[in-house]
Amino acid sequence: MSNQELMDEIVSEVRVCRKCRLWQYARNPVPGEGNLEASLMLIGEAPGYREDLAGRPFVGNAGKLLDRLISGINLRREEVYISNIVKHRPPKNREPKTDEVEACTAYLDRQIQVIRPRVIATLGKHSTKYILSKVNIEVRGLTAVRGLAYKEKLLGLPVTVIPTFHPAAVLYNLAYRSGLEEDFQKIRKELEKKT
Ligand code: SF4
């Protein structure tokens, strides 16, 4: 199967998924979008209000900020792949529950295996905890790990994981803004390294 066919299969499964309760509250699934050949994959937490309406990840104010961060490292949104650890919006934007993350992340794992990114940026505590747990790194708090570059074998693939803040958190706490921008420059440097 081609990468496009594999991704289409994942998206089709997400559209009819009932593996956790979240589909009941959502208008649309938000499977993820972007370039299947992307070197950079950005992984957030869960769709919000606008993402749920649009069926696309990061389209609200946090998405606009993310677009600026992506262009700040000389990439276009179409050149990266953007996804979340859960694909349906939790009611009232609450945090995803442990059983919901457990139910949903098999889709994300398959997306990573299709895209095979060189760098994964985890946006926020939940996606950082999930991705680093897969390489046996326990995350107690995001501030202890953000901006670090973890060179790991994830799902059998060599990848550098760089945790950073979720753009939505920065909208509410401007003190995080410079940290998020700094971390994106680290992502740029990592992407510029020769393989
Ligand atoms: S959030 Fe994930 S596991 Fe839950 S219903 Fe949606 S696609 Fe399925």
From TrEMBL:
* Homology family: Belongs to the uracil-DNA glycosylase (UDG) superfamily. Type 4 (UDGa) family.
Q: What start-end ranges are recorded for coiled-coil regions in this protein?
A: none
Pfam families recorded: UDG
Q: Which GO terms describe its molecular function?
A: 4 iron, 4 sulfur cluster binding; metal ion binding; uracil DNA N-glycosylase activity
Which key words are in the record? Answer: 4Fe-4S, DNA damage, DNA repair, Hydrolase, Iron, Iron-sulfur, Metal-binding
SMART domains, per database record:
UDG, UreE_C
Q: Does the keyword Transmembrane apply?
A: no
Query: Carries keyword Metal-binding?
Result: yes
Q: Which organism is it from?
A: Candidatus Methanoperedens nitratireducens
Cite a single GO BP annotation. Answer: DNA repair
Family annotation (SUPFAM superfamilies) = Uracil-DNA glycosylase-like (SSF52141)
- Uracil-DNA glycosylase-like domain location is 31-185
What is the recorded name of this protein?
Type-4 uracil-DNA glycosylase
- The EC number on file is 3.2.2.27
Reaction(s) catalysed by this chain, per the record, are: Hydrolyzes single-stranded DNA or mismatched double-stranded DNA and polynucleotides, releasing free uracil
Superkingdom in the source lineage: Archaea
